[in-house]
Amino acid sequence: MVNVIVIGGGFIGLTAAVRLAQAGADVQVWSPVGPERTVSAVAAAVWYPTRTDFDPRVCAWGRATYDEFTRQARAGVPGLLLRPTRNLEHAGGDEMPWWAPPDARIVAGTGPYRREIRFTAPLAEPAVYLPWLESQVTVRRRAVRRLSDALAEAPVVVNATGLAAGRLAGDDAVYPARGQIVLVRNPGLDTSVRAEASRADGMSAYVHPRTGDVVLGGTFEVGATGLEPDPATRDAIVARCTALVPELAGAPILGEKVGLRPCRRGGPRVERDGAVVHAYGHGGAGMTLSWGTADEVTRLALAGRAGRGKGD
Ligand SMILES: Cc1cc2nc3c(=O)[nH]c(=O)nc-3n(C[C@H](O)[C@H](O)[C@H](O)COP(=O)(O)OP(=O)(O)OC[C@H]3O[C@@H](n4cnc5c(N)ncnc54)[C@H](O)[C@@H]3O)c2cc1C
């Protein structure tokens, strides 16, 4: 019998499993699909607490994740980059936002923007980083119909099933927020730019250069579930991002992706309920909160285990 089964092989489940293994647990991840077919694979996967309300726990998870990604990037973990970042904001004075990382500074904005927050942001390339996470742990391609399927095989189960957690945990606070992004060839950019929603059309824009391509975004459509990219939305994303970063003009489009962010009213649920540790509802910030969440999951899952032998 394994110590802990983690159900879910996206950012949240894989990261939690790696931490649990590092803490000495005998861990198995269950996911019916490989990481390339998760919502996590669609993510721009840049450290930033998108649409996350301030909460001391979430703030601590974000900081812990920032520190861990920075350490990993410097250690050469595959698929991790550190990017200079410009956050363009319409309002605000001298006060730092609650999420600001240690090197953040405020500079005067230009054009319609009142100020910029400049900072260094970790960026994960999911096609490389998620398989690297997966390679650190034991994974079985299995789906559960209910959480108790896994409880038959382990004394502790982590529920990291993203949007599916709404049904599996009977939690009606979970809802999708559709995101569409466009990938273009990188014309030589290395700075991430994120602009607050425009006053004209209410849409935000972000440009996140990776090694070979650039992620252009994006939408945040609460309640929408369609998985087909919408051509008009694609054109609007490309136009907004090119207006923001003119070097993108004419960059060939390499692909389009759509994913349903696993959002939850009240914020992520990371708590223990009997033999189940829930870890879902990270919305637009699953990468950003992944290592802090994994630390908390590990503490909750292994609580009370001291003094017992592995496998007890
Ligand atoms: C367009 C877009 C851009 C984004 N950009 C960012 C960003 O820049 N930064 C950031 O931090 N976040 C970003 N996000 C959000 C991020 O993608 C999510 O918060 C994150 O992927 C959630 O991870 P997860 O592991 O909870 O869920 P998922 O990645 O959905 O993983 C869920 C796992 O559970 C498994 N599962 C589901 N049902 C079952 C079952 N019955 N049995 C067994 N396994 C099951 C699935 O197969 C999967 O392995 C973005 C999202 C989108 C869509």
Q: Compute the gyration radius: what is it? A: 19 Å
Q: Count of helical segments? A: 7
Helix content: 10-25%
Ions and ligands = flavin-adenine dinucleotide
What share of the residues does DSSP label as strand, in percent?
A: 25-35%
Shape: globular
* Beta-strand segment tally: 15
Helix/strand class? alpha/beta
Q: Which stretches are low in confidence, meaning pLDDT under 50 for 5 or more residues running?
A: 306-312
Order of helices and strands, N to C?
A: EHEHEEEHEHEHEEEEEHEEEH
The averaged pLDDT comes out at 94
- Termini separation comes to 9 Å
The main pleated sheet reads as: 9 strands, mixed
Task: Describe the structure concisely.
The protein is α/β, with parallel strands linked by helices. It is built from seven helices and 15 strands.
Describe this structure in words.
The chain is α/β, with parallel strands linked by helices and 312 residues long. The chain is built from seven helices and 15 strands. Strands 3, 4, 5, 8, 9, 10, 11, 12 and 13 form a nine-stranded mixed β-sheet that branches. Strands 6-2-1-7-15-14 form a six-stranded mixed β-sheet, with helices on one face. Helix 2 packs across helix 7. The longest helix has 20 residues. The chain is globular. The C terminus is likely disordered. The site of flavin-adenine dinucleotide (FAD) has 40 residues, from helix 1, strand 8 and strand 13. Flavin-adenine dinucleotide (FAD) binds next to helix 1, strand 8 and strand 13.
